[in-house]
Amino acid sequence: MATCSLLVRNATVVTMDPERRVIDPGYVAIDGDRIVGVGLDDWCPYDEADIVIDGTGKAVLPGFVNAHTHSTDLLLRGGLCDDRALYDWLTNVVDPGCRAYRPEDVRTAVELYALEALRSGITTVVDSVEAPLDDWDETAETVIGVYTRAGLRTVYAVMFYDAIAPEHLAQVAACDQRPPADRTDFGALMDLDRALAGIERIMDRHHGSADGRISVWPSPGVAIFCSDAAFAGAQALARRRGVMTTVHVCESPVDAHQGGRTGVGHLAAIGYLAPDVLAGHCVQISMDDVAILARTGTRVATNPVSNMFLGNGIAPVSDMLAAGISVGIGTDDANCNGTVNLLADLKLAALAQKARTKDAGAITAEEVLELATIGGAEAIGMAHEIGSLEPGKKADLAVLDLTASHLFPRHSVASVLVYQALGTEVETVVIDGRVVLRDRQVPWLDRDAERALAARAQEASVRAAALGRLPPRTDDLWRSRTVRPVRPSPHPTPPP
Fold it and tell me: What's the pLDDT tens digit per position in 299-326?
């Protein structure tokens, strides 16, 4: 018999391997940072391990991949961002709110984000971070420092913008902007050479750190706010450093077109679209655009909850999958989603496709679960290392409790996870073979510290809202909007 460092026994093992095996009861054995065995529990060759997890009544899955997110915006959720279209939201809430942060607020936001992500089984994040250019180094140090401590596998994507075409300046300015509506810098344009140099400096400092868990990518932030030279420069840098780039594409009706073409068509025409590009959103696209994405090998990160939250529409994910496009799923900003709960988002991802196509069979539970695991890993170019439970791959996994009553009856694990799970079933998370969540608690934050973190988040959010002059949205406003005249009952209650 053999020994290993961590062993999960007697579990329902959802491998997401090429055969999509579900092994019940099964085991997963880990030694160091790698999976060394997966199979039937009765055939487990390991009799000893430093850590043994009893998987009775539990499912073991590959850790979830959050393929598109923005951690630092988290402090602006809770009612500050509701009921706004994309560019109204960006211009009048996100930009002034984030610019009102203190440096310590960034740490608070990312710590709260990391805690919530781990508790929903997320082990890898593609975090597109926006900050004023002068603050890039400090922001990277803070955000990456939190992720390193939390143990998350992270792509730190540095967002930048260098130009706005006049056609889009008019479009964005015409968006419904509510008070304060006096900021029209759209996130501050940057000098391209300085931005690219700043990204490479962050790469030199952080790429490959935390035992290889940290990657740094260039991100021409939003396609319509970047010049052709920005895309060429970002891609050249990425290819020289062996990484991908990521960009927001065709997220809303406002940015569906660029340069006299569709947004996707424009990026293809300038030679940017390729297998080393992760295109975020791709909501407002045609079947011709789907064909372009497939032909160029471009990967996609869909964000169904934020797309619906902001009224942008529903991406044609089922069509993309049918065309052979690698698609992952993201939670996007917590302030245009509500949570960092990828498991809970899966149900909406499935239902959105069925509603969009008016076809109940447009997408299956199994396909949706793939978006968060092996599909997400493929979309970010890491399927050779993560996304499935196979010997030789990185030991990133989540253990979920399946004993709660809302998870019964159960005939298909994929169906139960997509349609019945709430996202609170995750008990244990392992990344690189290290237990980073056990009994829903992280080693770097006890219960008292967690309460203090929540209090700091509330204080920072209130302060940022005030300094950014964000319009208040309080329960008093709710009452004032919902009170209606009371009509006499046609059946009055007789006096006692």
Answer: 999 999 999 999 999 999 999 999 999 9
